[in-house]
Design brief:
The complex is a heterodimer of chains A (422) and B (285).
Chain A: H1 3-25, E1 36-42, H2 49-66, E2 69-70, E3 73-81, H3 86-99, E4 104-107, H4 111-124, E5 128-129, E6 147-148, H5 159-169, E7 174-180, H6 183-199, E8 202-209, H7 217-226, E9 230-234, H8 237-249, E10 258-260, H9 267-270, E11 281-284, H10 293-306, H11 312-330, H12 338-347, E12 360-361, E13 367-378, E14 384-395, H13 403-408
Parallel strand pairs in A: 1-3, 1-4, 4-5, 5-6, 7-8, 7-9, 9-10, 10-11
Antiparallel strand pairs in A: 2-3, 11-13, 12-13, 13-14
Helix pairs in contact in A: 2-11, 3-4, 5-6, 11-12
Chain B: H1 2-32, H2 39-57, H3 60-82, H4 90-112, E1 128-131, E2 134-137, H5 138-160, H6 162-179, H7 184-207, H8 216-231, H9 236-256, H10 263-275
Antiparallel strand pairs in B: 1-2
The chains are: A alpha/beta (422), B mainly alpha (285).
């Protein structure tokens, strides 16, 4: 083969390839009638793999129970592993949207993975739902119209009722907070400290420890010497597990009461713990030990399916699936009309959620909940779970503040915790 | 004052765990020149084995023994089936052990899931104890005593047994030992198994208060590396001093410079290396 011949045959091959390659990139004019494709992103490997697995379990449980069909269209769920890593999350989101032609994305667990995907869908308008990602500003100062927090919560939303409870009901006046040193922690502690200090309480000190702190003993020694009325702990995953355990081993349990963010006493943490976690009080929209019939039913079904009590991750993704189902029904399965679909999602009032109480979004795309103040208690079979102490109705992400005024305040950070000096 | 004593205790007990894990690391590193990056994974596997045995038998002692044996067996397999064939090539050893670490980690994730687990300890070691005005967890005091026992045991082994003499000779000059008609490969296998067993025991002891979770292996590996680099490879006393150094820095660093928690450990390490590249007790080969 001489050079000219080679060139011409090579270009013919390239041309032929180009013709066929165009095929998959052209979206069919009307996909109506074909399946609705949902891209589910979850960390199945990496630091938070356990939570990621439960996300997929919860999401699939709903569809297995209710049939994978909406308005005559099949539901096709495509799961991708975001590896607890923002780069991978972005790459997988791209693949789902550009190669697998999904109609919408849902999921991710860590805030940085969610923010990477949110930034990506900002450009192309693909609907992205975040039942787990709690970063405040995604539904506050940096809203993206096609990113909606169905069945989720924002980080500073839940600690506020807990701060009220601590101040008014328990009479605590002096608090020390300890938290993982990243945005989720700043926002949770900010929500708590702002409310607590505006009530008149005093924040003695705030500890920020690196993620994955093996040994909490240095902090425990200092907490003890500060002599607070109560400790507010913002820990997730293995850190939460260690903190609770070392707190008990150092003899602080029973001396200084512990309050926590909902992740501290989530099932994903306490299911491997014993009496050390007994009595910790936290606040959340979900409480697996609630006696509401809808919750009891959900918990029983989940336990039967996976042989464990549902965590926040399983619950939120289950509710997220329910929310999508309702939204898709409202537009009769026509999810290709994105503005209409997103509007329908925003209008959903979830009446039959496992919470047993109606849930709807505020004008900013974040759900409004009746929030439980809950306490870890031992179940007769020896497992520990959260049981409700009381309920605070209609808590939005803005608490008692006016949304517009609140949004003028800076975002919570390590240096800004909204603490009112008394 | 009592606060400083308290924090010093915290540093010492954390150092105790580091010593047990790092002494295994330094034995392997010192004698065979193998930077075993799977040492953290062996720690984690030991912890999980101990967890299973402790749940089945309710015995912490059995858990320790089972973990030591099981991880020593993994060490045996690793050395005879894999590492023996890349002898002398540092880059291949590092890649091989790193690969092994990843495989073991994923295996653990598949078998035990990603939840954080705690190895149950005997009732007698739970909760705090009052020493003078100091209230301190019993388990951590136990850990301190245990590590002292391990130190004495290893020192006796190295000083007064034939294997110990061979190991010491091998650290100084492995080729010469070989040339004197001693089967150095056999010594290598034993040492590797012993080092692995120490990692396994460390896993159970650490798993009881630091919990076991998917990335626990790399956390402990980084600390062990720091200990060995500071103390100097192959030296038991160096490892003990290095452990105390790192344990104290980690503890007091968190108290005094909370923002710089990691820098406080690795900053001084870099500085030390600049002036003493072989560590505090390291000797040239």
């Amino acid at each position: 083969m001489n050079r000219r011949k080679f060139l011409s045959s090579a270009s013919a091959v390239v041309a032929a390839n180009a013709v066929t390659a165009v095929g998959p990139f052209v979206r069919p004019a009307s996909a109506q009638g074909g399946p609705i494709r949902i891209g589910l992103l979850a960390p199945l490997t990496g630091v938070v793999a356990a939570g990621g697995k439960e996300m997929v379990e919860g999401f699939n449980l709903y569809w297995d129970q209710h049939g994978k069909k909406v308005a005559g269209r099949e539901i096709e769920i495509i799961v991708e592993d975001d590896a607890s890593n923002p780069d991978t999350a972005l790459q997988k989101a791209r693949r789902l949207v550009e190669q697998r032609n999904v109609n919408m994305l849902i999921g991710d667990l860590l805030a940085n993975t969610g923010l990477a995907v949110a930034e990506y869908v900002k450009g192309n308008g693909v609907p992205y739902f975040i039942p787990i990602i709690a970063a405040d500003d995604l539904t506050q100062r940096k809203r993206i119209p096609n990113v909606i927090r169905i069945a989720g919560y924002s980080a500073s939303q839940m600690p506020r009722p807990l701060a009220d409870y601590a101040y008014h009901k328990k009479g605590y006046r002096k608090v020390v907070t300890i938290s993982q040193d990243y945005t989720f922690g700043y926002e949770q502690c900010g929500g708590f400290c702002q409310t607590f200090s505006e009530n008149g309480g005093q924040v003695l000190h705030q500890f920020w420890q690196p993620l994955n702190t093996a040994d909490f003993s240095p902090y425990l020694a200092q907490i003890q010497s500060l002599k607070p009325d109560v400790v507010y702990a913002m820990e997730t995953g293995a850190d939460a597990n260690r903190f609770i355990q070392q707190y008990a081993n150092f003899g602080l349990k029973g001396k200084i009461p512990m309050l926590g963010c909902m992740n501290l006493t989530d099932q994903s943490v306490i299911r491997t713990l014993g009496a050390e976690c007994d009595g910790i009080v936290s606040s959340a929209q979900f409480c697996e030990g609630s006696t509401a019939p809808a919750t009891e039913k959900f918990v029983a079904e989940y336990e039967k399916a996976f042989n464990k009590l549902p965590s926040l991750y399983g619950f939120s993704m289950y509710s997220g699936a329910m929310w999508l189902d309702a939204g898709m029904k409202a537009v009769n399965g026509n999810v290709e009309d994105r503005p209409k679909f997103l509007a329908a999602i925003r209008k959903v009032v979830l009446n039959d959620s496992p919470l047993g109480r109606p849930v709807r979004l505020d004008d900013y795309g974040n759900p409004i909940y009746d929030v439980y103040i809950r306490e870890v208690k031992r179940r007769p079979d020896g497992k520990y779970w959260n049981v409700p102490l009381e309920t605070v109705p209609n808590v939005s992400q803005f608490g008692k503040y006016d949304p517009e005024t609140y949004l003028k305040q800076a975002s919570y950070s390590r240096t800004f915790q909204g603490i009112k000096k008394s | 004052m009592s606060m400083t004593v308290f924090q010093a205790m915290n540093g010492a007990t954390f150092a105790a765990l580091l010593f047990i894990v790092a002494s295994g690391f330094t034995l392997i590193f010192g004698l065979m020149r193998i930077v075993n990056l799977a040492h953290g994974a062996l720690y984690l596997m030991g912890g999980y084995f101990g967890l299973v045995v402790a749940h089945r038998t309710d015995s912490f002692t059995l858990a320790l023994a089972a973990a030591a044996l099981a991880v020593a067996a993994i060490g045996f397999g690793t050395y005879t089936l894999l590492l023996r064939f890349v002898g002398g090539n540092v880059l291949r050893q590092v890649l091989l052990t790193l690969g092994l670490a990843l495989v073991l980690d994923d295996l653990a994730l598949v078998i035990w899931g990603g939840d954080a687990f705690t190895v149950p300890i005997p009732e007698a070691l739970r909760g705090p104890v009052q020493v003078g005005s100091l209230v301190y967890p019993k388990y951590r005091l136990f850990l301190l005593l245990f590590s002292v026992a391990v130190f004495i045991g290893l020192a006796l082994l190295l000083r007064h047994t034939r294997l110990g003499a061979l190991i010491r000779a091998g650290v100084d000059d492995a080729e010469m030992v070989d040339a004197m008609g001693i089967d150095i490969q056999r010594v290598f296998v034993y040492t590797f198994m012993l080092g692995a067993a120490l990692a396994g025991i460390g896993g159970v002891l650490g798993g009881a208060f630091l919990t076991l979770y998917p990335t626990a292996d790399s956390d402990i590996l980084v600390f062990s590396l720091a200990v060995v680099i500071i103390g100097g490879r192959g030296s038991l006393a160096g490892t003990a001093i290095g452990s105390l150094f790192v344990g104290m820095l980690a503890t007091f660093g968190q108290v005094w410079f909370p923002e710089l928690a990691y820098f406080v450990i690795f900053g001084p390490m870099a500085l030390l290396l600049a002036f003493r590249p072989l560590g505090l007790f390291g000797r040239t080969a």
